[in-house]
Amino acid sequence: MWNWDFSFAGDYSYLHCAMIPTAEKIITAFRSGSSLPVLAETDTGVRCVIKWNGAGDGVTAHAVDWIALRCAQQCGIRVPQPHRIAVTSDLIDPEEDPEINELVVRSIGINLGIEYFETIVPYTSAAADRVPDAAKHRIYCYDVLMLNMDRIDVNPNMIFVNDELYCLDFSAAMELKMAVDGSVFSEQTFFPLLRRHPFYTPFSELTIPAIPVSRADIGEIVESIPVDWLVRGENSRPDIIESILSLFGDAHAAIQRRTQSIDAVPVESPEERSARLDSNLKAFEAVVRRYQ
């Protein structure tokens, strides 16, 4: 059946109405993900990966991913098509894993669906050699602008589909998280991770592309966010729109400033990284022991 999404936004007051497909059948669960995303088929026949509202990442991550994926499309970056997918109690299957059924119950409403590709080739640095430099610069600059801290050497979040490179999962785009939920972080916090970007390029060799995202694009993208994904107490739709407009309006200067600063970040060796992670783990375990 079709579900209708109506969302109304203050100063940008127009009614957004869209038919949203409903998940009818879970085909498989992806056990490698901590939030147990599933491949599902909808009543329109479309198959997509559902990221649950009730999973640990929360609905703010959906709003962030939705905005980032849609804006990336405007910037000429290949990404899977995002969908809004209705989840109802009809998706509960007594023969299904109880953990998944629990997620269904906690996620009734409009969830985030991501286009599913039947055949993919995992990203490797060797395979990336055939990607044009212009495309690499575009992806790196976009991630720098978004302060996307989740595309690093050991977790590139990229795949090849029909020999074309696609970028996945922008839910850790911290600029958009700040725009959506009002949190505040220093941009310098994320520079060490951006220095580990697979397409990191020194500023002197970097071509900063145009970022062709308009006010109309941003308004439509934000207005299309389901009400389910905007937590009460977070920024309003007009606030989110204005924050993103400000970000894109200053995009070239922000990318230039940040990439120059990222150049100065020292590169951590694998041995240093291992020692740091081991030290952090021991410190965490010490805190846990104190409270046991």
What oligomerization state is this entry in?
A: single chain
SS-based class: alpha+beta
Q: Largest sheet, order of strands side by side?
A: 3-4-5-7-6
Number of strands: 10
What's the SSE pattern? EEEEEHEHEEHEEHHHHHH
Q: What portion of residues is helical? A: 25-40%
Rounded to the nearest angstrom, the radius of gyration is 20 Å
Domain count: 1
- Rough outline: globular
How far apart are the termini? 50 Å
**Number of helical elements:** 9
Overall pLDDT, averaged?
Answer: 88
Low-confidence stretches: 1-17
How would a textbook summarize the main sheet? 5 strands, antiparallel
Percent in strands:
15-25%
Could you explain how this protein is built, in words?
This protein has nine helices and ten strands. It has one domain (3-270). The chain is α+β, with helices and mostly antiparallel strands and 292 residues long. It has helices at 58-74, 98-106, 133-146, 174-181, 191-194, 215-223, 237-249, 251-263, 270-290, and strands at residues 3-7, 16-20, 23-29, 38-42, 47-51, 82-87, 109-115, 121-122, 158-161, 164-167. A hairpin with an 8-residue loop joins strand 1 and strand 2. Helix content is 37%, strand content 17%.
Summarize the structure.
The protein is built from nine helices and ten strands. It is α+β, with helices and mostly antiparallel strands and 292 residues long.
